[in-house]
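chain below, 313 aa
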Amino acid sequence: MGSAPSIAVIDIGSNSIKSLVAIRDERGGISSRLMETLDARISAGIGQTRPRLSEDGMQRGLAAIRELLQGVAALAPERTVLVATSAVRDAANGTEFAERIRAATGYELRILSGEDEANLIGCGLTADPELAGLQDFYVFDLGGGSLECLVFRARRVEQAISLPLGCVRLAERHAGNLEAPFSERQRIEITAACRETFAKSGFRFSLPAEAGVVFAGGTVTTVRAIIGEKSGGPLSETSSVISVAAVRAMLDVIGAQSLASRQQIPGLPAARADVFPTALATVLAVAEIGRFSFFLHSSYNLRHGLAAELLNG
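prediction:
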């Protein structure tokens, strides 16, 4: 298994930058040899009408990319690919950042379209063995800049769309003072923004009521981490089934706290504490629009979709 060809992916997201080194296992699935995540928040300012990556954000991003590439290189993958999503895609100076990455690392940056991002996330989710029994299901992947929404019917993508509903974007537009407690007014504004965006998008909640619902992304990973800290066990031992009622209760408690208090919550990364109430409110808004009472969490994501694409090639 160690001699199997491996590939590496660096995923430059709005909130975090992630790496994956993967191989094909003997069953044809994706097997991870290395996964790392660094919070970099390159997307500060993405809520503006014409977003630009700040100098500080680009410097944080470059530092994270260099660190992840160093870890990847130790495993000597046959190929390494760098991709970027919403923050770089939407930024007026995104191509400048791509050039700075090339100059600093020697790697070309592939800036994914919203459709490509959604489809690659879908490809990654179908590689999750825990979801092998699902045939008809929705997938939602919440990032800092965008929300990817997919409909699978018979395990094939029927719809795939990227919506500008990332938690950093919404927090900058609707959450006001991120150091203060999260108010009911802010929750209502975020829910209304989600409803309006979905209504204009043409996304159809077309599956039967018994269809599965999968949520991916750092927000739900953090929800499980907080639950795990409360129960005294690691995230891997928490249930991948999350009730909407549990998310609502978590927002009620965490949203009432100041940023300084949220940053002390076990399982909640301090770098995410400012936008976490907005992220929870967004998850709840999607559940309300789709009339979901629970969902499944998967840690498979865009990196796994890219890995599958590269290993198939």
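Residues 129-297 form a domain with the Nucleotidyltransferase; domain 5 fold (CATH 3.30.420.150). The mean pLDDT is 93.
thats it, cya
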